[in-house]
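Schema walkthrough. Field components (list of strings):
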Amino acid sequence: MTDAETTVGELSEGQVLRGILSRLPASTAPVGPGDDAAVLAVPDGRVVATTDTLVHGPDFRLAWSSAVDLGYKSAAVNLADVAAMGARPIALLVALAMPESTPLSFVRGLADGLAEACADLAPGCAVEGGDLAVSDTLTIAVTALGSLDGREPVRRSGARAGDAVHIIGELGVAGRGLDVLFTRFVDAAGAPILVTPEARASLGAEDAEGLDRQLRPHPPIADALRAADAGATAMMDVSDGLALDAERLADASGVTIAFDAGALGDDLARALGGGEDHGFLVTYPAGTDGPGRRVGTVVARGEVAVTVDGRPWTGRTGWDPYRDWDAGRG
Amino acid sequence: MTDAETTVGELSEGQVLRGILSRLPASTAPVGPGDDAAVLAVPDGRVVATTDTLVHGPDFRLAWSSAVDLGYKSAAVNLADVAAMGARPIALLVALAMPESTPLSFVRGLADGLAEACADLAPGCAVEGGDLAVSDTLTIAVTALGSLDGREPVRRSGARAGDAVHIIGELGVAGRGLDVLFTRFVDAAGAPILVTPEARASLGAEDAEGLDRQLRPHPPIADALRAADAGATAMMDVSDGLALDAERLADASGVTIAFDAGALGDDLARALGGGEDHGFLVTYPAGTDGPGRRVGTVVARGEVAVTVDGRPWTGRTGWDPYRDWDAGRG
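Field assembly_structure (string):
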């Protein structure tokens, strides 16, 4: 039997763990993996902490996402949440629950994806702890921790009337990729079919980019930290859809976000309703020279939390897992 | 329809969240729940972090554990890991993945259990963040964070020949409870049956205590911190079974743990092979007056990592989820 065919159900927890640890970036923490808990240095005495889970079914299909993709995405979405507070990601904890039939090669792919995401998006961040469990449903729960390095945290509640509204990163690209999956990579009955390298190569440039970003989001972490340094009054990760996330920021700040449609690109519906780009929605005091492109203005709270060219947005606003999952898996 | 009958699938993520937040202890953090990430104060510039998951099937049966029990246990096992490093638990992050058919009343019970565990075991610790997801398998992934408050972390690797070996807390009590469940609360086919208040009341005192501790472990957190202050050279949470956990500590320290059978109580098999008590295994320099009762001595590394009255232990050592789950759920 080759390693590729070995399943986690045939191994002890320690053996599975050894298959992972050697593939991860080297620990930089005072105490890394292997003890009851990790110890991490946060020199200014404050730690930023967030957790987000990917679940087989609502969050991914195994026909569409490789193990490396899933490791990458599970890290990226959490790194983005840390950076959205103005903090530098320093560590991930990964709780992995998987069926006994999961091949060890799949677990190694997940580890490779976690390592790639840390290297690409947050160099110096490492997986400093985790947990392995058996489950009927493949579940990847990641916690990310960050250091503010003396910055004040940038909250959702700090936007003030008159602030400029910027977007750092992409809008609607990952949403385009999701549409590609649900139109090009399903069979006649709507069941997901495998994303092969050949099928990917046959896609047009925009569809291929969308697919890549849907499977491996690239939050511009360094730009988010620069936004904090430039004086951002509020910031958040755009994960569920710009209209929905802007509403949350507007509600937390007690303001209205007034978008200029012309600044949101050619596909307004996808820019406002497509999720998972993991760019950043930022507000700055007027006149600030901060990262991102301007897409609107903060105004005094009106009847609605978000407007587009002065009118309420009546299109799709984003994704709610309790409302929107179609119960498919694959 | 009453609240008790409402399921999470009928609600938005925000509605489910509101059903939880009001039942949790008030946040004590600089930034608590509701933003992209929490911000926590760790005055000495180091944070202790650990994660552990409870999965329906391998880790619990819904016939045996109430929602409050599950919330309590998911907090307790993580609080114990933080305390085992010599750190004071300050925050939990809770990633909850659950079927759409889960009643809202169940989610509220989970929140009550989390709150009770914090109040009982680690006053001042609160749920400062989390994530809600839909899943076919109920999964509770908890991350616990702690502050060392100037202490040096107590690792597994610090035990030295000549140290005294102590146990803080119970041994084999939770294991007795597991045996009660698998013998008294199964039907003729071995399927779990409901633990009713009447059935609990009919148990003898020791069985009732075992059942209570199996469902709601009580790690003696404050004593673990006192052990660190007293000069513990090594410490760990006893979760998977004393023999297995002692082997891990011995291997990390390059020593052998020599237990005295007479100090381990009347039921040696359960003391060494029963898991989930979440007491602490501690080593102290000879002559230290630290918490716990003495159960053995650290000696130079011999042929085996653990001995009992000088001989290798050949009985059951503990629980490995990849080896030991019987695939039952219920």
